[in-house]
Design brief:
Chain lengths: ~280, ~280
């Protein structure tokens, strides 16, 4: 989806993302893009199979060049996490160890707290096919796992990074219902405007004998008004609707002038327009 | 990451995902995989550029065959949403319309409520390069947008679907801190076992004149015990630690028997072991 605003400040802070022996440059690039989407920038790679730098990674990063340019490559995982204070390992499998297992929401809140406290943190992601080894998980403080469909739990590495990056972004938001833009605030029309619409429409309908038989008219008007007031129209919307009524009214009255009684007698007007009683 | 458990029930319910004129089969496949990861199964496609079926889509779906096999293809968006009661449009751009804009969290809660009430819902995703047109957005009830980095807001279509699918899954969870598996509950050792470790270690250190000068011994013991009790060891861990102390103790006492005073006098014992006072 389009929508990047290059005049905005580029967010680039938070935990380091550490990929252990990734195989495909495309995946590394998509990881970089996912990080950039949600304000992360520090990407570390342990033994990329196809070497580094990688043109495939840069292409797949879709202009997340600041992440690609800053990549650090290591031979050993121990070196890649040497300067960090706290590390999560991501895994979809139960490990027979004693490390606490956290949801992405909990883990992101922990990472945010540590970030605020000035600690350096990181998140480990394993190989495309085999994930992290037990020895690699053992280097982490805690485990994070995703609430996936149990029968289809295998997440692509870039998607796993995306989810953690997204939760990282959310962990810094006070209101999870907040949106970056919204529709313009709509002021409902005054009741004078609304009643003007009612009367305009009812007059046009009356001219066609829509309210038939006369004994049912009060109930039909009531239902029609309920339909028209269930949503609070704005002044502008009322103007549009009155324009529509006026337009229909002019045309129909010319046609109906010589034939109004026949049309009314067969009840066509009510059925074709949708009987207000059933609304 | 590995971890699929094919004996588990396959989740396949919730809103339809509707892709409007997607260009690449690979993206459609990654969308199917993301849906399967989080329990969605109903994929509808309007005018896929490269036709349907697509072998590239199937390959990229990584065995989400139940989603690929169930794909419905439409020529017009109007037909693709004809049977739905409520539709979201995803967009990263402000639209000059009057539709409410929701966060993924809010939108997923709404979709879950409507699902429980028996309504049929869907989420629209636009073209890779240009997203949805204003006319297409106008067919939706509300807009959903992602809390992205303002300076890098362009989300890949499969990643956008992944985030909505993930939030859909979370909207059905009572506890967002819940995890599908966790470490085995650890019972802390009894204080008898813990004090046994303290005394075992302190005896071995005493034999090497570690607590030097004698006036500092109480403070050094206190610090050492604080280090060893900050985390609640289990019985098994205490056994492991006492085995380590025993092993070091045997070796060192043989070596130290003739030389213990020299070593102690230079303070090597304290520095090399990490002085307990600084812990």
């Amino acid at each position: 989806m389009a929508g990047t605003n290059s005049e905005q400040v580029l967010l680039a802070e938070g935990p380091a993302i550490i990929l252990v022996e990734p195989q495909l440059g495309e995946n590394i690039g998509m990881v970089a893009r996912a990080m950039a989407n949600f304000g992360l920038a520090e990407l570390r790679i342990v033994n990329p199979r196809d070497g580094w730098p990688s043109e495939k990674a840069r292409a797949a990063a879709s202009k997340a060049d600041h992440v690609i340019d800053g990549v650090m490559v290591y031979e050993r995982l121990e070196d890649a996490i040497a300067d960090l204070n706290f590390v999560y390992a991501t895994t979809a499998r139960f490990r027979d160890g004693f490390k606490p297992v956290r949801s992405p929401v909990t883990a992101s809140q922990t990472l945010r707290q540590k970030f605020v406290a000035g600690e350096k943190t990181g998140i480990l992601f394993g190989r495309e096919k085999s994930g992290l080894s037990n020895e690699e998980v053992a280097l982490a403080d805690e485990i994070v796992t995703f609430p996936v469909n149990p029968a289809f739990a295998s997440l692509n590495i870039a998607q796993a990074v995306l989810l953690m990056s997204y939760e990282w972004m959310k962990s810094g938001m006070e209101d999870l219902a907040a949106v970056p833009f919204d529709a313009v605030e709509q002021t409902p029309a005054t009741k004078t405007e609304l009643i003007g619409l009612f009367e305009h429409l009812e007059d046009a309908l009356d001219a066609r004998n829509y309210f038939h038989p006369a004994s049912k008219k009060p109930r039909m008007v009531e239902n029609l008004r309920a339909v028209l007031s269930r949503r609070a129209f704005t002044s502008q919307e009322i103007k549009v609707l009155r324009g529509v009524v006026s337009s229909l009214d002019r045309f129909q009255r010319r046609w109906a002038a010589k034939d109004v009684k026949t049309g009314a007698a067969t009840g066509d007007g009510q059925d074709a327009d949708g009987n207000a009683e059933t609304a």
